[in-house]
Specification:
- With about 400 residues, the protein is of the alpha/beta class.
- It contains 14 helices and 17 strands.
- A seven-stranded mixed β-sheet has the order 4-12-11-10-7-5-6, sandwiched between helices. Strands 1-2-3-15 form a four-stranded mixed β-sheet.
- A hairpin with a 2-residue loop joins strand 13 and strand 14.
- It is globular.
- The two termini are about 40 Å apart.
- The model has no long low-confidence stretch (mean pLDDT about 95).
- It binds pyridoxal-5'-phosphate.
- The site of pyridoxal-5'-phosphate has 14 residues, from helix 5.
């Protein structure tokens, strides 16, 4: 069946309606382009929301997946497998961490970090140390623990009561965090670059201050790099640009090369509190996703790959600032590497629409921020095409 309308009708009839989808039906991809069922090409500046770092149809990823599918698709975590053990070694050797916990999504990685922080705190300090501090504009996921740390009424209100012990402070405001701290806090969770909240990079002094507050109050610092991790910002992990080490890090989106994977990175002092049976997941760290992940992690960790991300990020931001000088609807262009936000003075919904009609996929991050997350392999020629389409779309809402 390739009839676009029939596919839309089926979806509308049978799928739980939790998404508002664009009207086209995506069929296949190649490089940095996606194609719909009517054969129209879209330059992809969404990448499955920061998932498809290597774009579409990468041969090395494909070969790793196909070879592993031929050998073994799934076994329980009751048994050792080579891809999982090797991937864990690679992740530890390219990060601050000593241990890796495997799961299947960003929200699950945050749930894992919440449990590990609580267990660590209970082991060392007893029952009363169980509160978390999260920040305004944060997004940590939609499961009940992660949701409690995602302080936005339109995500939370219908689902109360939430996990108790969640405290809110203001992003990039250290005094506000300090006011929430006492010895009952077991962890602060922060995105080094907020994604859903509007592409907001943290100030270096803010992250440094969080580290100091955690040390003073015997709390853990958790960085959520589900969206900004694995090369997106131009360093392998975003916090490396800030030179501050967390005690745990959550990540997901790009690490499975398009297959579902979440990860919690732990320092040994946190890992020491965790015992067999404390946490688990049936599908986590399966052989196929780990084989794919080894490819994407080793490719992105290469310094020349990361230099390319930085160069392309600088190139796009320079082009966008140029556009901003001509299009008064643009208030600010911000970001780090290839996670870029264009703050506008009005809703960007019509810009997203005008872009995809012209053949460019973009998404919003809050009502007034247009978010760009191209595959990390983007080159200047396609960046120029995207810039031209974005300017044309911005002109439409500026009129
Ligand atoms: N944390 C951050 C920073 C995210 O951006 C997201 C998703 O956008 C999540 C957690 C939740 O990830 P998932 O949708 O894989 O559950």
């Amino acid at each position: 069946m390739t009839n676009t309308q029939e596919i839309r009708d089926l979806e509308n009839k049978y799928v739980l309606q939790t998404y508002s989808r664009a009207p086209f039906v995506l069929d296949h991809g190649e490089g940095v382009y996606l194609y719909d069922t009517d054969g129209k090409a879209y330059l992809d500046f969404v990448s499955g929301i920061a998932v498809n770092a290597l774009g579409y149809g990468d041969l090395e990823v494909r070969e790793a997946i196909v070879d592993q599918v031929d050998k073994l698709i799934h076994v329980s975590n009751l048994y050792y497998t080579q891809p999982q053990a090797e991937l864990a070694e690679l992740l530890v050797k390219t990060s601050f961490a000593d241990r890796i916990f495997f799961c299947n999504s960003g929200a699950e990685s945050v749930e894992g970090a919440i449990k590990f922080a609580r267990k660590w705190a209970k082991t060392h300090y007893g029952k009363g140390k169980n509160c978390f501090v999260s920040l305004s504009g944060a997004f940590h996921g939609r499961t009940m623990g992660a949701l409690a740390l995602t302080p936005r009424p339109h995500y939370q209100d219908a689902f109360r009561p939430l996990m108790p012990g969640a405290r809110l402070a203001e992003f990039n405001n250290l005094d506000s965090v300090a006011a929430q701290m006492d010895e009952s806090v077991c962890a602060i969770i922060a995105e080094p670059v907020q994604g859903e909240g509007g592409v907001n990079p943290a100030d270096p002094e803010f992250l440094q201050g969080l580290r100091e507050l955690c040390d003073r109050y015997h709390a853990l610092l958790i960085f959520d790099e589900v969206q900004c991790g694995l090369g997106r910002t131009g360093s392998l992990w975003a916090h490396q640009q800030y030179d501050i080490e967390p005690d745990m890090m959550t990540t997901a989106k790009p690490v499975g090369a398009g297959l579902p994977m979440g990860l919690v990175f732990l320092k040994q002092h946190v890992a020491d509190a965790i015992e067999p049976g404390d946490h688990a997941s049936t599908f986590a760290g399966g052989p196929v996703v780990c084989a794919a992940s080894k490819v994407v992690v080793s490719r992105v960790a290469n310094p020349s790959f990361l230099a390319h991300v930085q160069e392309m990020g600088d190139y796009l931001v320079a082009g966008l600032k140029d556009i901003a000088s001509r299009q008064p609807v643009v208030e600010e262009v911000r970001g780090l590497g290839l996670i870029i936000g264009i703050q506008c003075s009005s809703s960007v919904g019509p810009v997203v629409r005008a872009c995809y009609e012209a053949g460019l996929l973009t998404c919003s991050a809050g009502p007034n921020v247009l978010r760009l997350l191209p595959p990390l392999i983007i080159e200047k020629g396609d960046a120029d095409k995207a810039l031209a389409m974005i300017e044309e779309a911005l002109r439409v809402i500026g009129e």
